[in-house]
Amino acid sequence: MSQGSGGGRTPVTRIAEEQPGGAIGGEGRHTGLTAAEVAERVARGEVNDVPVRASRSVGEIIRGNVFTLFNAIMGVLFAVILVVGPLKDGLFGFVVLFNALIGIIQELRAKKTLDSLAVIGESRPTVRRDGQSHEVATGDIVLGDLIELGPGDKVVVDGVVTESDGLEIDESLLTGEADPVVKQPGDTVMSGSFVVAGGGAFTATKVGRQAYAAQLAEEASRFTLVNSELRNGIAKILKFCIALMIPASIGLVLSQLLVQRADTFEAIRRTVAGIVVMVPEGLVLITSVAFAIGVIRLGRKQCLVQELPAIEGLARVDVVCLDKTGTLTEGGMDVTDLRVLDAGSGEPYVRQVLAALGSSDPRPNASLAAIIDAYPADSAEGWRHGETLPFSSARKYSGAELTEPDGTRRTWLLGAPDVLLPPGHTQLGAVDELNTQGLRVLLLARADGPLEDVRASAAPEALTPAALVILEQRLRPEAPDTLRYFAEQGVDAKVISGDNAVSVGAVAGKLGLRGAESPVDARELPQDQQRMAEAVEDGAVFGRVSPQQKREMVGALQSKGHNVAMTGDGVNDVLALKDADIGVSMGSGSEATRAVAQIVLLNNSFATLPDVVAEGRRVIGNIERVANLFLTKTVYSVFLAFAVIATQVPYPFLPRHSTLLSALTIGTPAFFLALAPNKERARPYFVRRVLRLAIPFGILAGAATFGTYLLARAHYGATDATREAETTAATLTLFLIALWVLTIIARPLSWWRVGLIATMFTGFVLAISIPFTQDFFELQLVGTQMPLTAIGMAVAAGVIMEIAARIAPKKVPDLPKSVTEQQQEQDREKAGQTA
User: Fold this and answer.
1) What are the boundaries of the region Disordered (predicted)?
2) What b/e string do you get for 381-406 counting C-beta neighbours within 10 Å, with b at 16 or more?
């Protein structure tokens, strides 16, 4: 085993037997492929050419917006109108075309945003070629490439370990086995695993679609519209619509042909009108547009949404688990003090030990990086390092065998004092005092015996404390406002960290987190999931949490019915990020965390999370409003169809009437409502919440409209000459009721919502007032008695709808209150009692 010099940064490695394309250079390490060998492999197609896309292709976007079931139905009906005429009854066909164009344009904009962000956030493995290390795109790796690994790096292709320096690989995402696997030269590594400690290099043996990464990378990075409560809810609504449409359409076709025997084309036109209005053709479009615009808005804030449902998912969470380092604090730290504990070791000697330790790790974590800045390698001239033990979150310390200039060889450890020292040690009191100030404290200790003995033991023994290294963490300036936002929105924030619990509590306290004054040491948490869930639910700050415990705590919260979001940037957060309902990674985080997270904050700003939550709430709340409008239309159209079938009368509307009503009361308003600001908290039972209003509203609208139509037929005489007046009376009633539904759905009313409703009303008035539009739509109010009756029927139905809108919410369970909301309620009660 070779030893690097104390002043160098070359890692100590074990090197496997030479592999093809991996000649060993003069520095005692493999040099990797040559440029000529890379070119040969590229020519043979031995490239990692798996397409990793962040969005659907242009062809998929066009097909997804054009070739839909409802577009097919509308296309057939439009073709029928082209045959029987007139063309003005085929306006709905142009509306469908316009809708498809809007959907395509918006999703192409979202694709452009996503693809540009994906390039920024794409992992770039380090490949050694011609003895030099280079970062390359994942797709540029070739068969036989020598790929370097360090903590947090993801294994992107399958291979065989060539060099190992305490290399530990976590394969839990592949095998489910939680314990890291120590890899020696000659061992295989699988794509999809990641490095938790140490470093090394491996030779790629499978690339492209032969590697396991071909499946993992595509699944992790694909822009998807599935596995979403909102999307699944809309799918159920569409099935409900189809179930109603089929029998109603068949019955309507038969009844109209039998009733209108003398004018078959007129019967066909009215049949088409009855079917067209049943189709909720704009619902899927509006949903896709709302999601696409959400992606664009978040993209402008440097937020990469790797899975689209994450936008709505984060809006539904009621617990957000935050990793302290890199989330609440910035990645960097500063050494503020050094307290020498061993009387036999002076401060200059301790500084040299720390400098030598820093130079022994080629990929230092944030703590060791701060020590390297304070005690650079050139201050340990003449020191050499041998065997090293890289830091891992599981053991909480690192170590190295250091040889001093005089040849003395000692084993040194650097890590958490409460892990390295036995309980009750005299130094732990001083450490606790420092922790209460929010400082991070590391213990430098000398171990008896070689490092291999320390590595083999579960807990180091026979240590001589040498010094306490005190570091100050840099708090993120935006963190207090973000935590305050979550508290105001009823979302419980829980800080879960591997650091000392008291120190974590002090940091959280500075940021104003409720419950920070009672930090919990995770080593004392119960093993039973039920009891753990209760403890985690009650606590707010947890320290000394192992990576596996983070995963268990997320699972415990989920077992209590919580929707959990997990944020993190380190390799120790990967398991919890994967299991959480929503995983959020910082852009500067490890490659592994970015791979499993649904949302990546490329700007590394914790303050972006409220924007994601707000965008999700906008999408969910607005789509619920829009779905109410579309489903109300389907219900009243089906009601009218069955009413017409039962009474054997002509269908009251032509396709042009349905197009006018849909445009003014549903299509145009829905587009604006879907894109409006909405800060309402997302609630469950999407389908039930929509149906509870749409069904009574639709039945009332259908009953009132058909009642007006029958009264008009009786009043005007029910002849071919009076049909226009009968239709106009029914149209007036249906428009006013639909406008009333829009008013209820749009609440709370703001100035622009009132303006939208007024504009739609003005549009209808113009349609029945201007001679040209009167002739085009065949709408003409005749006399005063029936128009007033039509208005009266609409008002009566509107009053009943107002009552229904107040009763319906009581029939659907409310979302359980979170711990934060309960605490806020108790605080208000206490404040009232005090007053």
Assistant:
1) 1-29, 813-835
2) eebbbbbbbbbbbbbbbbbbbbbbee
- Determine if the peptide bond prior to 816 is cis (ω within 30°): no
> Are 509 and 328 contacting, i.e. CB atoms less than 8 angstroms apart?
no
Residue 53 contacts residue 223 (beta carbons within 8 Å): yes
* DSSP-derived secondary structure letter, 226: -
Residue 434: CB atoms within 10 Å: 22
Write the DSSP string, 376-395.
Answer: -GGGGTT-EEEEEE---TTT
DSSP string over 646-699: HHT---S--HHHHHHHHIIIIIHHHHHHHTS---PPP-S-HHHHHHHHHHHHHH
Q: Are 324 and 507 in contact (CB under 8 A)?
A: yes
* Dihedral angle computed from the Cα positions of residues 194, 196, 200 and 206, in that order, rounded to the nearest 10 degrees: -10
Spatial separation of the C-alpha atoms in residues 702 and 697, rounded to whole Å? 9
Encoded tokens for 213: 């990464």
Mean pLDDT of the chain, nearest integer:
80
Mean pLDDT of 523-545: 89
Query: What's the pLDDT score for residue 442?
Result: 92
Mean local confidence (pLDDT), 235-239: 77
- Extract the runs of DSSP E, i.e. beta strands, from 55-157: 126-129, 132-135, 146-149
Q: How far apart are CA 520 and CA 809, in angstroms?
A: 40
Classify the C-alpha dihedral 738-743-745-750 as positive or negative. Answer: positive
Which of 323, 361, 569, 581 is catalytic? The answer is: 323
For CA atoms 475, 478, 482, 483, the dihedral sign is positive
- Nearest Cα to 271, choosing from 261, 256, 258? 256
Distance, CA of 817 to CA of 819 (rounded, Å): 7
pTM of the model: 0.69
The per-residue pLDDT for 490 is 83
Check residue 341 and report its DSSP letter. Answer: -
Q: State how far Cα 432 lies from the chain centre.
A: 38
Identify whether the C-beta of residue 474 lies closer than 8 Å to the C-beta of residue 425: no
HSE at residue 355, side-chain half, CA atoms within 13 A, is: 22
Over residues 409-442, the pLDDT tens digits come to: 888 999 888 888 888 888 888 888 888 888 888 9
| Residue 696's pLDDT band (cuts 50, 70, 90) | very high
Does 334 participate in catalysis according to the annotation? no
Give the 3-state secondary structure of residue 127.
Answer: strand
C-alpha atoms less than 13 angstroms from C-alpha of 350 in its C-beta half-sphere: 24
